[in-house]
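Re: the 113-residue chain
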Amino acid sequence: MIKNYIEKANFEDTGFSYTLSLISGKHKMVILYCLMEFEVVRFNELKRYLKNISDKTLSTNLKELEADHLIVRTEYPQIPPKVEYRLSDRGKSLMVVLDQLCVWGENNRSANR
């Protein structure tokens, strides 16, 4: 019985798979967490927070998060250009889940040492 269920099941059709597709990668969750902590952040501030990330990688991650409607990019028409990033309402709703990952990590980090 379970064998038939597993054979017909499709992981890609699950909500879990969809959520992972939005936050997968080395930096996306850290970017979201940074925006949760500091609310409005500029590009160079994110770069300093993430330390060893290239401009291209950060830019690509930000564009993907914006396309997925998890962050909002606000560009100010001035010289030099000023761009700020913040969580969208959709991104804020995801932070409940990411915050629980942090809580779990804090609770279990010392247990593994």
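The chain is about 60% helix and 10% strand.
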